[in-house]
Amino acid sequence: MKGPGRQQEPWPLFDGAMKHYEVEILDAKTREKLCFLDKVEPQATIAEIKNLFTKSHPQWYPARQSLRLDPKGKSLKDEDVLQKLPVGTTATLYFRDLGAQISWVTVFLTEYAGPLFIYLLFYFRVPFIYGHRYDFTSSRHTVVHLACICHSFHYVKRLLETLFVHRFSHGTMPLRNIFKNCTYYWGFAAWMAYYINHPLYTPPTYGAQQVKLALAIFVICQLGNFSIHMALRDLRPAGSKTRKIPYPTKNPFTWLFLLVSCPNYTYEVGSWIGFAIMTQCLPVALFSLVGFTQMTIWAKGKHRSYLKEFRDYPPLRMPIIPFLL
């Protein structure tokens, strides 16, 4: 017998009379019993339990389910096996609704197609932006055209990477996030494009030299970012959730792995710094700062995850900036 409040122990052995689990699923907030599953195989995964739960509650399809051992605990992974969890023959799982979900591919395509289209509206000076006298006119400054090429290249690259390079560990994300993300990307794209393509825009202070230096930074960082994405893709076979320590390859752009855990973010920030220097535009600088802040948060989270998961993780690496951060 187990006393009140005592944690249930795993069930390591099975004999002829004990072949299955009973699984009860409670609402994590109200503790209301939502579902009782009888005769669940010991080898059943959380993903399979979610599918069984969906049969009685079709409004909660598997992607929007979070099942956990404790109402306030972490979500169990889909690949977790029931018999390996710290539960007894009657397992209690707690359910939280993650809300309506949308695929990561759809999210990324929407996020990145918006800035590409919006920027071009300002570049071609469509009506009702700068006044009738400027409708469909062209800037006389070379840097404006170069900035449009760089901005468009960046987002076309992102779209192609989403379709052909990235492999996502999670299939979906909450639908509500797409509105927040699109507001960020689309809003900043419009703000930057308005000033860079404005008829009164003035070129950078140091002229062609400043533009050439910034262009070199942008191109190098774009190549570096793509190289890191390819290296990360090769670490995870298609259709799997395998996680490995990323190491430098023969590609020199990947050598940054020697010093940071997330060089893709390092190169991404570098690209926008180059774009900011090229255009000498305050909204671009602010976008770079906000992006750096968010990517630093992501990089620190991934760095902590690597350290926790891999005991032999290289000790010299920092999350995003070598030797500093």
Topology, element by element:
Layout: E1 21-27, E2 33-40, H1 46-56, E3 65-68, E4 90-97, E5 101-103, H2 104-123, H3 142-164, E6 172-174, H4 176-196, H5 207-235, H6 263-279, H7 282-309
Helix pairs in contact: 2-3, 2-4, 3-5, 4-7, 5-6, 6-7
Description:
The protein has a 4-stranded mixed beta sheet with strand order 2-1-4-3, covered by helices on one side. 46% of the residues lie in helices and 10% in strands. Helix 2 packs antiparallel against helix 3, helix 4 runs antiparallel to helix 7 (282-309) and helix 6 packs antiparallel against helix 7. With 325 residues, the protein is α+β, with helices and mostly antiparallel strands. The chain contains 7 helices and 6 strands, in the order ββαβββααβαααα.
Broad structural category: alpha+beta
Percent strand equals 5-15%
Report the radius of gyration as a whole number of Å: 25 Å
Low-confidence stretches: 1-17
Average pLDDT figure: 91
Helix content: 40-55%
Tell me about the biggest sheet? 4 strands, mixed
Given the C-alpha coordinates, what overall shape results?
elongated
Number of strands: 6
Task: Give the helices and strands as they follow along the chain.
Answer: EEHEEEHHEHHHH
The termini sit apart by 52 Å
The number of helical runs is 7
Strand order of the largest sheet: 2-1-4-3
EC number: 1.3.1.93
Protein name: Very-long-chain enoyl-CoA reductase
Domain 3-oxo-5-alpha-steroid 4-dehydrogenase C-terminal: 172-325
Membrane topology: Multi-pass membrane protein
